[in-house]
């Protein structure tokens, strides 16, 4: 059975999301050959259409599984970091919450996404938002410099989730919060499913159970960890032939105060 290296996984994910920007190809909810046509049915991100009217057109590529800015409730003046920021939808929504005294930083490993997000920021006149190229396992962010971390359907794509949460803790200020939307499964993914790169890149076989995600956060050093799983599952795991059922979840934790 094929076991992919971390490098191979990142390359496949980067290619998939480069295609999303440059060729309107499949999103996290789309199969390898459907051209992204089913994305609106399962990955609308839970955004209020009125919200999306207030940000640059093209910032929402339909890649999310929740709306982390609602659960996270960014506060005026805070510094917010978005892991896997894509074309910038959650960064722009957060920017409105933190105001001109606050700051929002998006980090994404796909150059085409960063380019799109920067153009969206330029056309939208966002002076308190910036986008950086980098991997979420090794963030290009200074220690203890962030008040809030958000993310939307990205951490499941990382082959090294323990590094993601460890580096998230590093960059958070004491007492800082992590509030992300991501995918959890109802049972362990099988080895066969782990070896299916299409399932990995479409947010199925890289996901973990609630208990595994909870332990990863605790092991990284987070406290007050909670996972609020949606009551209704997404259907794209089953329709892709996976044995697991996948759910959107709001995952949160806090860095201990100094």
Instruction: Tell me the number of structural domains.
Output: 1
The largest sheet, given as strand count, sense and whether it forms a barrel, is: 8 strands, mixed
Q: Approximately how much helix is present in the residues? A: 25-40%
Secondary-structure class: alpha/beta
Q: What is the overall shape?
A: globular
Give the termini distance in whole angstroms.
47 Å
Order of helical and strand elements: HHHHEHEHEEHEHHEHEHE
Cα-based radius of gyration, to the nearest Å: 17 Å
Specify the CATH homologous superfamily: Vaccinia Virus protein VP39
Low-confidence stretches: 24-42
Strand content: 15-25%
As an assembly, this protein is single chain
Report mean pLDDT, rounded to a whole number: 87
CATH architecture: 3-Layer(aba) Sandwich
Set out the fold topology:
Blueprint: H1 6-23, H2 39-42, H3 49-52, H4 68-72, E1 79-83, H5 89-98, E2 103-108, H6 111-124, E3 129-133, E4 146-152, H7 161-171, E5 172-185, H8 191-194, H9 197-201, E6 208-209, H10 210-220, E7 223-229, H11 236-239, E8 246-254
Parallel strand pairs: 1-2, 1-4, 2-3, 4-5, 5-6
Antiparallel strand pairs: 5-8, 7-8
Helix pairs in contact: 1-6, 7-10
């Amino acid at each position: 059975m094929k076991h992919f290296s971390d490098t191979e996984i990142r390359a496949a994910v980067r290619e998939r999301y480069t295609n999303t920007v440059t060729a309107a190809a499949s999103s996290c909810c789309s199969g390898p050959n459907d051209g992204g046509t089913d994305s609106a049915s399962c990955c609308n991100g839970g955004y209020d259409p009125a919200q999306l009217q207030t940000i640059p057109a093209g910032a929402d590529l339909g890649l999310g599984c929740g709306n982390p800015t609602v659960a996270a409730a960014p506060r005026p003046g805070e510094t917010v970091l978005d892991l896997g920021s894509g074309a910038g939808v959650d960064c722009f929504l957060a920017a409105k919450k933190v105001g001109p005294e606050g700051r929002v930083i998006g980090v994404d490993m796909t150059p085409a996404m960063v380019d799109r997000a920067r153009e969206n920021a330029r056309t939208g006149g966002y002076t308190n938002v910036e986008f950086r190229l980098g991997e979420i396992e090794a963030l290009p962010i200074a220690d203890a410099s962030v008040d809030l971390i958000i993310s939307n359907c990205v951490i499941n794509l990382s082959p090294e989730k323990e590094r993601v949460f460890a580096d998230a803790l590093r960059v958070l200020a004491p007492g800082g919060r992590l509030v992300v939307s991501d995918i959890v499964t109802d049972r362990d993914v099988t080895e066969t499913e782990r070896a299916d790169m299409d399932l990995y890149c479409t947010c199925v076989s890289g996901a973990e159970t609630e208990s595994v995600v909870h332990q990863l956060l605790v092991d990284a050093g987070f406290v007050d960890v909670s996972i609020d799983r949606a009551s209704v599952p997404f259907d794209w795991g089953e329709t892709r032939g996976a044995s697991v059922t996948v759910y959107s979840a709001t995952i949160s934790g806090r860095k201990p105060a100094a």
